[in-house]
Amino acid sequence: MADDPQNTPDNDPEVKPEGAPGTATGSERQREAGKGAEGDQADAVKTAETARAAAEKRASEAEQEAARLRRSNAATRGTDLDALRAEVRAEFTEALVRAELRAAAAGKLRDPADALALLDVASLAGSGGDIDAAAVAAAVDQLVKDKPYLAVADQNGPAPMWGDVGAGQRETAEPEPATPLDRLRRAYTA
């Protein structure tokens, strides 16, 4: 009821409990009314100063944390460098072993990548990062012995037999009949 004099914005039918946010007691209203424009500016300045002090405090704490992290990183940097060197050395050694393994398997296996997949690359590397070429060759030979179907077909031996599938040109034992009547006679006599 918009026309109801009881329901105006000043006379809100909802009663808010005293001390709730957004409500002011009578003495607070009198103080606010007495402040005027100067009181509002003073509150705004005080709020801005409080926010600025909190922001400066957070900034100084962040700078202190950054300095602490820099000191911490500087202390551990020496050991990290040694760990990085060891990691790079291990990766380089593994790459060399893989290359040596592919080279050794090139003439013995149909697909040299099978040697990489089926052999333990880490066991073929020496402790100091050296590669034992004899151990690599022995590992490839053992792989060929264990799985002969991976080996390259022997060039001097017989070709693999796939069986007769009945295709291609053939030699016949008898010459082809000259007339169709001869063809029928051969079919019924056989």
Keywords, please?
mainly alpha, 190 residues, 5 helices, elongated
Structure in a nutshell:
This protein has helices spanning 26-105, 113-118, 121-124, 133-146, 180-189. It is an all-alpha fold.
C-alpha Rg (nearest Å): 47 Å
Strand fraction equals under 5%
How far the N terminus sits from the C terminus, by CA atoms, comes to: 116 Å
Number of helices: 5
* Largest sheet features: none
Written description of the protein model:
The chain is mainly alpha-helical and 190 residues long. The protein has five helices and no strands. Helix 1 packs across helix 4. The mean pLDDT is 77.
SSE layout and pairing:
Blueprint: H1 26-105, H2 113-118, H3 121-124, H4 133-146, H5 180-189
